[in-house]
Amino acid sequence: MLGTLNGALEVRQVSLPGSAISASVEGINEVVERIPTLTELKVHYQLRIPAEAREVVDRALASHQSKCPSAQSLAGAVQISWTADITEE
What we know:
Blueprint: H1 2-11, E1 21-32, E2 35-49, H2 54-67, H3 69-74, E3 79-88
Parallel strand pairs: 2-3
Antiparallel strand pairs: 1-2
């Protein structure tokens, strides 16, 4: 999802250096019918953006999950959520 978000930002003319965009992911496993199964992913982004790009970044965040091949591949099997800490510079 990070790559999809970064691509969405670049298409919108917001190019962030690698040090300004990162993500951490927590996977939640549950035992389903006696089998440990990945049931949830929680993605947390850390972004440092130009102050004037905030509206564009918010729009990219709002739509990136629906455009992400990995997220779409897991849809229906794994619940995916995301949060973001955004610092405007």
